[in-house]
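Our consortium's second objective concerns turning raw sequence data into structural hypotheses that experimental partners can test. To show how far this objective has progressed, the report includes one record in full. It was chosen at random from the queue rather than selected for favorable results. The single chain below, 333 residues long, was entered without modification.
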Amino acid sequence: MVLAEIKKITYKINTVILILVFCLMAFFALCKATFLVWFSIPTAGVYLIGYYLISKDDLYSYVRMVYGWLTLYMSITTICLGYRFGFHLYCMSMIPIIFYTEYMAFQLKTNSINTTLYSVFVIIAYLVSTGYSAYMSPIYDVDSRIAGAFWLFNALVVLGFVTFYSRLLIKMIIASEKQLSERANRDRLTHLYNRHYMMEQLKEAYADDKVYYIAMLDIDNFKSINDKYGHLAGDEVLRKVALIMEDVCKDCIVSRWGGEEFLILTTEGAELIEKLRRAVEDMVIEFEDQIIKVTLTAGVELKNKDIKFNKWIVAADEKLYIGKNSGKNRVVS
């Protein structure tokens, strides 16, 4: 998840909480809880400052300010109205959400607050405020029917926040896992699948009853390209050839096997690889005002369960070298 997306979510959450503060302020006025009405003013100010901190990408200061004030707010409202109103329930959402912010900070490579220390702080505030409410009468005496309805409201708000942030955290973890898996299975230069990933796919294809072909391909005279135009030009050739492969072989698994060699797993035969060979031959690569022409040689082998799995790859490789030794720029099947 990128910073812009996190900022957008934080803006929305900040707005929701600010609206809740004003709604609660009106409720406190209705209950004649004068101190809580006045206390709502600096509380609203905290979230107005929050907009500024978010706009400046200072999420570290925002989290510290908001969570510190939320703990204070939870404690004071619980002491003033009693735990029957459910304000103490907010600690149930604050602790898991603070660990979400730690993961978010890790993803963004920014500072993170001390989540363990803050959790202890929240727990102490919870015990003190609810303990006071249990043994002492609340400062403001409000009708018990209102208290029950408000407990339900606060419980729904808390559960809503926990559900939202839990879902968000899981989405971030899944996206991160997918990104790591993609990086592990892709070649950095060409963005094709790498040898490790292809080996897994080949094993699955070999065990399958479907008809499969593999094509071992090699860029002709690649060393000469590097020597004449430089290694950066060689990298550009590899990238452009990879793009052509993905374009022509849309329903195939295409991998960089190593160096200038590629391996393609397909349900089609030599005709597709010949089409690819012609596309590469017709391709014009421009690099630093120079025109580079390249060709491919390929060996294509049909899956045969009468031979061992590794012999399937060896057979395609042998046909590749037959093509290399008989003039290059051809497909041998």
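The partners drew two points from this record. Residues 144-185 form the longest helix (42 residues). Strands lie at 213-219, 253-258, 261-266, 285-287, 290-292, 296-302, 331-332. Both points have been shared with the crystallography group to help prioritize constructs.
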